[in-house]
Amino acid sequence: MIKLLRVDHRLLHGQVAVSWFGALGANTILVANDSVAQDEFRKSAIRLAKPEHAKLVMKSIADSIKAINSGITDKYDMLIVVESVADANQLIKGTKNKITSLNLGGTKPREGTKNYSKTINLTNQEAEILYSLQQNGIDVYIQQVPSESKQVFKK
């Protein structure tokens, strides 16, 4: 069961590993990221942030979609973390309505981005993707930690 899909450019770190993992009652973290899936150094660094009793899986976006669609992940209470809005969009569209909400946790400022909150910076294209997801019934919201209130994403 997918407990949360979160966009966070830092992937797995203290807020995700401690706050979200515990609050959700998750037992598994899936880091869905093409570059991490091929980078042993990044995998090692991410393993250091993993909560002690968590199962950690790191897969490419395509392999993550295959695993979710196959049903093999159904037995887990899973927190999924992706690095970008594009990755989240691909995952949502590829998993046949298994993901109904998207938590925006952190996107760093980049050239051509607009600030939407203290931690969310989006290009016009990313904002359009999120708006499209909302139009298709996905609950898109900004929330850094579980103790904060959800802020509905507004274009």
Automatic annotation (TrEMBL):
Coiled coil: none annotated. Residues 1-155 form the PTS EIIB type-4 domain. It is found in: Cytoplasm. GO terms for biological process: phosphoenolpyruvate-dependent sugar phosphotransferase system. The keyword Manganese does not apply. Keywords: Cytoplasm, Kinase, Phosphotransferase system, Sugar transport, Transferase, Transport. The keyword Protease does not apply. InterPro entries: PTS_IIB_sorbose-sp (IPR004720), PTS_IIB_sorbose-sp_sf (IPR036667). CDD domains: PTS_IIB_man. It comes from the Bacteria. Its main location: cytoplasm. One of its GO terms (molecular function) is kinase activity. It holds the Pfam family PTSIIB_sorb. One of its GO terms (cellular component) is cytoplasm. This is PTS mannose/fructose/sorbose transporter subunit IIB. It comes from Bombilactobacillus bombi.
